[in-house]
Amino acid sequence: MTREIYISVLACKFSREFWNSSRESQDSLFGELEGFFSMSRKELIHLRTYRSIRHDCDLLLWLSSFDPEKLVSFKENLKRALRGLGREVYSMLSLYEHSPYLKAGEELSNSLNFPPLKYFVCYPMNKDPEWYLVDPKERKTIMGEHIGMATSNPENKDIRSYTTYSYGISDQEFVVMYETDSLADWSHVTQKLREARQRKWVTKEYPIFVGLLAEPFRF
What we know:
Layout lengths: L4 E10 L1 H5 L2 H19 L4 E7 L6 E7 L2 H15 L3 E11 L11 H4 L7 E9 L8 H16 L8 E6 L8 E7 L2 H11 L8 E3 L4 E5 L6
Antiparallel strand pairs: 1-3, 1-4, 2-3, 2-9, 5-7, 5-8, 5-9, 6-7
């Protein structure tokens, strides 16, 4: 039986004191953080670190565990590792489960441990309440169109997607995440998917976080 996988995405910002410190001091903190991340990976399903491209955060962390308590422990230990020189500015919690619109494939935890791609894109999503009143068969047809448009797009062939669910445990209904080696390809695929019928029920897809892979962790 597949176990539930809990996903956390954390966006952190370094303080002005940190950015005003010497490069030597910054590298010292980065070294301590890398040590902390290396140790944490032994307790988690996966952990990825990214340099944020957004204006309001510097560091993105994407992590998962079978036990939500381990995500809480990671968050508390991260605050200690940052030594007051950084703080969380946004976070999302979700469950990674098989989509009701796709056939169940391999163990989901395996999909989180492929070699990482260069960029990470993540955002929360909500749908209009009317979506849940549409007949389930019709919903499946509508989502099938959306999925087909994505999978048949030639620019989508190297993009990995992860749809996760936040009903009742976070401010959004879904957290959607993508890995890609080309932000241009990702943007083109997203633009085309604006034509999918299911778009009429989407009410929120922001803030959008974009990160550049940083492993080993260095800026």
